[in-house]
Specification:
The chain is mostly helical. The protein contains 13 helices and six strands. The chain has a two-stranded antiparallel ribbon. Helix 1 runs antiparallel to helix 3.
Length: 379
């Protein structure tokens, strides 16, 4: 279904549009506040367009091109159509036989081209399981199921789910027992103790649910769908911040996450190499693993801004980050139903290029502290 506006431009209709705009609040009494002005601009132009160029719905059949469709198949289909028109005009048995031969030839060419394409596709992508599974689902016409029950009350579900994510973060923060670090404060100076407590704000062990679980709240994870303008702006901020950190060596040496030319494979190889070296020295190896619960969603904005300031980010840039982190919210959408807006007082958006970088900055203090206390560290 294609929805489009049709507008037959004329001098008279242009005068009517200009007259409606001149009488609107946008021209006669524009708001002083920027947000109100943008809303007024959008509503006024939308109302004028709906009046003079209403939306019309039309059904457009779009057949996506297939990769195996070649020129010889196109030519064979033309010959088939020509033979069919001749047979329908003459009604002769001879022309019917010619049409059937042309039709069978086209079907054979299509089947052969399709078979050759998928044979080559499987051979070329034998090591790429994602593309193979995607192709098999397309061939088998596997529908994309949202995994939700068919009799679900959607409006109640989206609001309950949005409230669940908010309550989950609040619960994690309440469970943090900062006072439990009193016994170790004597091991560090005041600055180190403060940094350790700050980093603790997102460190709670969690159990990742395996795939295939029921669509209940505890098995779901929020991923934000950001607008293009937001992604474009965030990319510019990411490039500047990443270049500043790389040029000045501000990344912890042991950190592999969300860095160019680093990967989880490198971290695993480093851990394996350290274990083997200790085994050769006949040393006992103690492996301490730390997992994060709702890691991106529990990032404290005050601590994050302080961490950015410690990296030399100040002035207009730090104020931009303050504006970027404040006033955030999210909606939950399912089956065409959208929840109310929920306020986000902590966390960085998942699905953006800037989120992983800010999370790395947020946790960098923990790696530096661990490097002072443990023989080897990798993150």
């Amino acid at each position: 279904m294609d929805r489009s506006r049709e507008y037959q431009g004329s001098l008279a209709s242009s005068h009517l549009i200009n007259a409606d705009l001149a009488e609107s609040d946008l021209c006669s009494n524009p708001p002083d506040d920027l947000d109100e002005l943008v809303a007024c601009y959008d509503s006024t132009l939308r109302a004028v367009m709906d009046k003079h160029a209403p939306v019309q719905s039309r059904t457009i059949v779009v057949r996506p091109p297939v990769p195996w469709y070649a020129d010889n198949i196109r030519q064979a289909k033309k010959e088939r159509q020509k033979a069919e028109r001749k047979w329908r005009s003459s009604k002769l048995e001879f022309d019917l036989a010619v049409f059937k031969r042309k039709r069978n030839a086209v079907n054979n060419l299509l089947n052969k081209a399709r078979q050759e394409f998928y044979t080559n596709f499987i051979e070329e992508n034998s090591l790429n399981q994602r593309r193979l599974f995607r192709a098999s689902k397309r061939l088998l016409n596997v529908s994309r199921d949202d995994g939700l029950p068919p009799n679900l009350h959607t409006s109640t579900f989206v609001n309950d789910l949005g409230q669940y994510f908010v309550t989950k973060i609040e619960t994690i923060q309440r469970k943090l027992d900062i006072e439990s670090f009193d016994s170790v404060t004597s091991l560090f100076d005041s600055q180190m103790t403060l940094r350790l407590c700050l980093c603790h704000c997102s460190l709670i062990l969690k159990t990742c649910p395996p795939p295939g679980l029921d669509a209940v709240n505890k098995n779901l994870r929020p991923v934000r769908n950001l607008a293009f303008v937001s992604k474009f702006t965030e990319k510019a901020a990411f490039d500047g911040t990443y270049s500043h950190m790389s040029a000045n060596g501000l990344y912890p040496i042991a950190q592999s996450a969300y860095r160019a030319n680093h990967s989880t494979e490198m971290a695993l190889l480093k851990v394996k190499n350290d274990i083997l070296l200790n085994m050769n020295k006949q040393h006992v190896t103690l492996l301490v693993l730390l997992d994060l619960s709702a890691a991106f969603d529990t990032v404290d904005h005050v601590i994050l801004l302080r961490a950015l300031g410690s990296l030399g980010i100040a002035g207009t840039v730090i104020e931009w980050y303050r504006s970027y982190l404040s006033g955030r919210g999210h909606h939950i959408s399912a089956r065409g139903c959208t929840s109310e807006r929920f306020r986000l007082d902590c966390g960085v958006p998942q699905g953006s290029c800037l989120g992983p970088l800010l999370f790395s900055i947020y946790t960098s203090s923990l790696l530096r502290i661990a490097q002072d206390l443990l023989p080897t560290v990798h993150g």
